[in-house]
Amino acid sequence: MYCFTCKEDFESMMTCIYRVWEAKKGRENVRLEIEPVEQMELLTEYIHVEMDPELAQKVIRSIRTKISAHAYYQIYLAAMSIDPGRLDAIYRFLRLGFAVGGQVTEYLREEPVMRIFELSRQVANERHYFYEFLRFARIEPGIYVAHMEPKGNVAALVAEHFADRMPSEDWMIIDDGRCLGVVHPKDEPFYVTEFREEEMERLCQTEKQDDLYTQMWKEFFHTIAVEKRENPVCQRNLFPLRYRKHVTEFL
């Protein structure tokens, strides 16, 4: 058995898939895993794959042209999940996809297709939550920051939504758990960057400035509440506790 491993960024995953096809070890003799590998198995050869942008783009182009753009989108969402088997699931899906073409997304009874749709749905649902639950706070005049701690790697996906709605503002969305940030300069495209540990500490310790709209929102949230109709269970179902850590009205 051969186990191909790589880092968790999307380009590394695509490079890893290219190397697996290039190695021609047979689909039953290979497994793909995201690093770090928690437990190595006996009689398995582990092969680390370094990211190669050119090879990654070759795989991406092949998916879009030989399968479909919709299949590529589902794969991308699945890659952003936290499931440890997501890379191997993507590989199995692509093997089927390159065999049958764009109609692969209709093969809902096939295990690889069901798996990818399940993972992509989880990521899409979490992305949708943060459309509603993400809160920005001012740290300097004209600069806004929002912190998040999602399960999946959805910061860039969420940023697309806010880039469309706040194009003329300077803002950042920071994934505290992954030390990742999406930086959006005013009237420019956003980009994703990794923060060093000391940078993350400084960003997390930065004091939020008083903001009129923040205070107005808090007042509105508490004013419209009807004490006799308070239903904590229903509120937790609609607004799970794990999303509230950085939400203005619950601070």
How would you portray this structure in words?
The chain is an alpha/beta fold and 251 residues long. Helices cover 47% and strands 16% of the residues. The strands form 2 sheets. Strands 4-5-6-7-8 form a 5-stranded mixed sheet, covered by helices on one side. It is elongated and about 65 Å long. The mean pLDDT is 90.
Nutshell version of this structure?
The model has no long low-confidence stretch (mean pLDDT 90). The protein has helices at residues 10-23, 53-67, 69-79, 86-100, 111-133, 155-165, 197-205, 212-223, 232-238; strands spanning 2-6, 30-34, 45-48, 137-140, 143-148, 170-175, 180-184, 191-194. It is α/β, with parallel strands linked by helices and 251 residues long.
List keywords for this structure.
five-stranded mixed β-sheet, 9 helices, 16% strand, 251 residues, alpha/beta, three-stranded parallel β-sheet
Compile the SSE list and pairings.
Blueprint: E1 2-6, H1 10-23, E2 30-34, E3 45-48, H2 53-67, H3 69-79, H4 86-100, H5 111-133, E4 137-140, E5 143-148, H6 155-165, E6 170-175, E7 180-184, E8 191-194, H7 197-205, H8 212-223, H9 232-238
Parallel strand pairs: 1-2, 1-3, 5-6
Antiparallel strand pairs: 4-5, 6-7, 7-8
Helix pairs in contact: 1-2, 2-3, 3-4, 3-5, 4-5, 5-6
Number of strands: 8
Please bin the fraction of helical residues. 40-55%
Order of helices and strands: EHEEHHHHEEHEEEHHH
- Helices, by number, come to 9
C-alpha Rg, in Å? 21 Å
Strand portion: 15-25%
Distance between the termini: 51 Å
What is the strand arrangement across the widest sheet?
4-5-6-7-8
Q: Catalogue the unreliable spans.
A: none
Major β-sheet annotation: 5 strands, mixed
Structural class: alpha/beta
Overall spatial form: elongated
Task: Write down the overall mean pLDDT.
Answer: 90
> What is the chains' assembly state?
single chain
